Amino acid sequence: MIYQPYSKLVAIKRWADRGLYDAVTRNFDRLGSEDASIMLRILDHIHVVDRIFQHHLQGLSHTFQAPRSESLPQLEMLEGSAREVDDWYANYVDSLTESDFEQPVDFVFTSGKPARMRRGEIILHVCLHGTYHRGNAGAVLQLKGIAPGRDAITDFLEDTA
């Protein structure tokens, strides 16, 4: 059974992530080396956090020691991997029952501190975290006169109507 609020949130995240990657890919050469590095760091951070929590939801360990990669990946690799993870979240959320979202998940933060969150809280965190940092990335683009991807729920609803 598809639980609508979470499915919608993940669909919006996937749509907004793809819009941002499209804008960055089309305009990456317009960013100076410092801004390009900042952009890659933002995109990598979003992606690593998505992957860390993907592992937590699956009950799997991961090798991340921090909420970023040890070495900065290339844009093309990040984009492809982000698409895969976004698709995974969409399929995962659509496979859960309403009660599954209340199930607690025990894990350890990259700081080493133990934690517990409900599956729904993890999904909400991943979606809100991505929104916050897409805003950071959009600001970098706007400072260069580049329009970032659309990111608002209303934009999503208009585009998918």
TrEMBL record:
Molecular function terms from GO: metal ion binding
Residues that hold a divalent metal cation according to the record = 45, 129, 133
Q: Which UniProt keywords apply?
A: Metal-binding
What name does UniProt use for this protein? Damage-inducible protein DinB
Homology family: Belongs to the DinB family.
Kindly give the InterPro entries that the UniProt entry links to this protein: DinB, DinB/YfiT-like
Checking Pfam families in the record gives:
DinB
